[in-house]
Amino acid sequence: MPVTSVVSDPHALTVTLVADFPVGPERLWKAFTDPRQLERFWGPPGYPATFGAFDLRPGGIADYAMTSPRGEVSRGRWEFTKVSDPSSFEVIDTFVDDSGDAMDMPASRTEFAFTGTDGGGRVTSTTHFTSVEALEQLTAMGMIEGLTMGVNQLDIVLRDLREYAQSRGAELEILDDQHVRITRVIRGPRELVWRAHFEPELMQKWLLGPDGWTMPVCETSTEVGGTYRYEWEPAPGVEGERFGFEGEVLHVEPGRRAVTTERMIGMPDGPTTINDLSLYEEDGVTLLTQLIEYPDAATRDMILETGMVDGMEASYARMEALVLA
Q1: pTM for the whole thing?
Q2: Strands (E), the chain
Q3: Any idea where the Activator of Hsp90 ATPase homologue 1/2-like C-terminal domain is (predicted)?
Q4: How do residues 123-142 score in pLDDT, each as one tens digit?
Q5: Mean pLDDT for the stretch of residues 161-187
C-alpha cells in the first residue's frame, strides 16, 4: 500500500501521514488539485467525495460531499490558506451542513506537501488540531482510518487506464474483514458499461459467469427502494443447479454509481452483502470498481472460495466484447 506511516502526536496536536508513489511530485500535485481526480480517492471506500466549487488560491473555497452506500451525505469545506504550486498547499477543513453553514464540530488545519524521492514522489499530510479533545474526537470518528484508506486509493488514479487494461483482468483487494474491492478496466465508454449493467437484454448476454450457463430471469431497477431478481441455470449437459440472487436498490447516481443489497434466493436467513458499483471513464475506457461489504470475515472467505472473482472475470471479458461490438 502507498501509505507508509501514520503518526498521531497528542503533544504536538498533529496527525502526520506519509505515502510514496512511483510518480514525481508534480503528478501528485495534479491529483490533489484537480477536483475530478481528487474526488476519485478523497474519502474511504464506500464514501466517495464529490467536489463542487474548487478555488485554488489563498482565501479560496472548495466544497465537497461524501455519500455513503445508503445515500447519507456528509459535507465539508476547505478554505485554502497557502498555495505553493507545485510543492504544497494548506487548508482549513470544516464540517458544514446542507446549507453550507459550519457545524458544531472541530475544524482542523492540514498541510499537503509533495516532494521527490529516489523512486518517484511523496505526499506528506500534516493535520493540526486546536486541542487534545478535538484530536481525540476526530480520531474516534475514524479520521485516521478514512484518510489512510482514501490515500491508498490514489495509486489507481495515477495509472494510465488504457495501458493498465492491456495486461490485467479483474483484480481483488481485501480491504478488511468485511470489505473487498474488485476492479476491472473495460475498453469501452461508461455510458455503455452502465447500460450493460441495467438493461436486461444486454445483461442476459454477458452476466453469465463460466461458459454453459444462461440467465432466464433478469428483473432490474435503478430506482432507490426498487428491487431486482436474477436467476441462472446450466445449459443441457452442464453440471450445476439453478440459483439466483435478489436485492434492493439503496443508492443511485445514474451513469456513475449504484449500491444494492444482495442475498441468495430461497435463503431468507442467509448472509446479505452490500454491493457498491462505480464507473469512471478516461480516454474512452472505463474503470469499473465493485466494493462489496460482507457481514463478517467468515462469510467473505466462504464466498470468495467459490471462485467468484474468476466468474466475474469471465463475465467482464464477455461484457467487454459486447460493449466493444
Answers
A1: 0.86
A2: 3-9, 14-21, 49-54, 61-67, 73-84, 88-96, 108-117, 120-128, 171-174, 179-186, 213-219, 227-234, 243-253, 257-264, 273-282, 285-293
A3: 25-158, 189-323
A4: 999 999 999 999 999 999 99
A5: 85
Q: How far is Cα 208 from Cα 317, in angstroms, rounded to an integer?
A: 11
* Residue 129: partners with Cβ closer than 8 Å, 6 or more residues away: 13, 14, 15, 106, 108, 135, 138
pLDDT value at position 165?
64
Cα distances (Å, whole numbers) of residue 65 to 51, 96, 139, 290: 7, 10, 20, 20
Contact 44, 149 (CB under 8 A): yes
Q: To 10 degrees, what angle do helices 308-324 and 190-198 make?
A: 120
Q: What's the rounded Cα separation, in Å, for the pair 274 and 163?
A: 31
66-70: long-range contacts (C-beta < 8 A, 24 or more apart)?
Answer: 67/251, 67/253, 68/251, 69/250, 69/251, 69/259, 69/274, 69/276, 69/293, 70/250, 70/251, 70/259
First to last CA, the chain: 36
pLDDT one-digit tens code per residue, 45-57:
899 999 999 999 9
**Which residue, 256, 279, 255, 282, is CA-closest to 34?**
282
pLDDT band at 163 (very low <50, low <70, confident <90, very high): confident
Report the chain's C-alpha Rg in angstroms.
21
Which pLDDT band, with edges at 50, 70 and 90, does 234 fall under? very high
Task: Report how far residue 189's alpha carbon sits from residue 162's, in angstroms, rounded to the nearest whole number.
Answer: 12
What domains are defined for the chain? 3-157 (3.30.530.20), 161-324 (3.30.530.20)
Is residue 273 helix, strand or coil?
strand
Q: Which helix (H) or strand (E) holds 13?
A: none
pLDDT in tens, 69-88: 999 999 999 999 999 999 99
The residue with cell 442475498 is 263
**Percent of the chain beyond pLDDT 70?**
99
Spatial CB neighbours of 131, under 8 Å, sequence gap ≥ 6: 13, 106
pLDDT of residue 167: 62
